[in-house]
Input
Amino acid sequence: MLVLFYTAVALTVIGFTGFIALNAVQNHGLVPPPRALAPYDCAGADTPFMFQYLHGTERVKISTATGVLEGTLHNNQLDWGSFGSDASQLGFVPPTEISAQDAQSLTLRGPGAFTMPCVRSAPERKASPTH
Output
């Protein structure tokens, strides 16, 4: 009876270890890869830009034709790290907070009366092969 118990425990441990190893190989590591940031088009400023953000994460990013700025989000406040007030990198001073959001849009606020509505970009479609 004791041999059956030890055999069952050993098979359970081996099976669980194999499951973890299989997931690690599929994910290229023990931690799953991070999901991509969702792009939002912000077109109301002098310089249109793309704001990238994923609800539930702290990473944010702004992309313009003149540059890219990466930062973090804490309690709806945007932190751009060591970025000063130099508008030449992006063409404008970046926003400082997210004031409203839903599944398809968000509103950014910045210095002065800067308010920018942004709409989630449509996902890019892969071209289908032609025959």
